[in-house]
C-alpha cells in the first residue's frame, strides 16, 4: 500500500532531535524523502542541553532505515543564505520539494522582569525570523508543484502561558505569519497552517527547564494551572505531534489552510 506522502520531498528544520526528528521519521515512514536541517550547536539563553551533529546524523540514519533518502544540512535558521543553500541542495539531490515543516525553536522561560533585551531579541530571531527565513528559502521551490507548509507555534500561540512573554510573543507571531503566507501563496495551491502543541516530552524539557519554570511559578503560584491539559495527560510525545504533521503534509488535508491546528490536549481551553 502506498504511503500517505509517497513520492513527496519534505524539509524539516530543528530535525536533529525531539519533534523535528519525529516529523522527519514519520514522513519518511509514509514515503517521503527528507531534507533535515539543524544548527547542531549552542542555543542562546536556554537551560537545557543543545543538539549535536551526532543527533542530526542519527535522524538521517532513522530516515534511511525507512528506505528513504535524507539530505542533511547544519544551518542556523537565522541564516537565510544558509537555508537557501540547503533548500537548493535538497531539491537538486531529491528532485522536488512538497512539504516544509518550520519547527526549529527555543524556549527560555523567566518572569517578565527578568527578560533581558538580548533574550527577547534572541527568541524573536530564532522563533520568528527563523520561521520567516525558512518559508522565504523554500516557498520558491514549492511554487510550481503546490505543497504544504507547517509553521510550528505552540499552545502558547493560542492562549497565554505564563513566565514567557518573549516566547508567547514569538509563537503568536508565528500564528499570524502562517495566515499571512497562506493568503498570498494560495494562488499557487500552497497551503500554510500553524501547529500548536501542548507540552511535549523532548530535550527542551530537560536540563534545568523544570527547575527554571518551578522557580518562576513560586513567584506567582496562582498561574501554575494555566499549564493544565483538559485531557488527562501530563505530557504528550513527539510522535503525537508527528501524526498531525503527517496529516497536514498529506493530500488528506488538501483544503485545510490558514488554520490553527491544536495538538494541545485541550490546554488552550482550560
Ligand atoms: N517541547 C514542548 O513542550 C513544546 C511545546 C509546544 C511547542 N514547542 C515547539 O516545538 C518546536 C520543537 O521543539 P522540541 O520540543 O522538539 O525542542 P528541542 O529543543 O528538543 O528541539 C529543537 C531543535 O531545534 C534546533 N534549533 C534551535 N534553534 C535553532 C536554530 N537557530 N537553527 C536551527 N536549528 C535550531 C535545536 O538544535 C533542536 O535540535 C519548537 O519550535 C518549540 O518551540 C515545543
TrEMBL record:
* Family of this protein: Belongs to the short-chain dehydrogenases/reductases (SDR) family.
Query: What Gene Ontology molecular-function terms does this entry list?
Result: oxidoreductase activity, acting on the CH-OH group of donors, NAD or NADP as acceptor
* Protein name, as recorded: SDR family mycofactocin-dependent oxidoreductase
Can you name the source organism? Geodermatophilus amargosae
NCBIfam families membership: PRK12826.1-3, SDR_subfam_1
Residue ranges of the TM segments = none
Q: Determine the domain of life of the protein's source.
A: Bacteria
Q: Which UniProt keywords apply?
A: NAD, Oxidoreductase
Matching Gene3D superfamilies, A to Z? NAD(P)-binding Rossmann-like Domain (3.40.50.720)
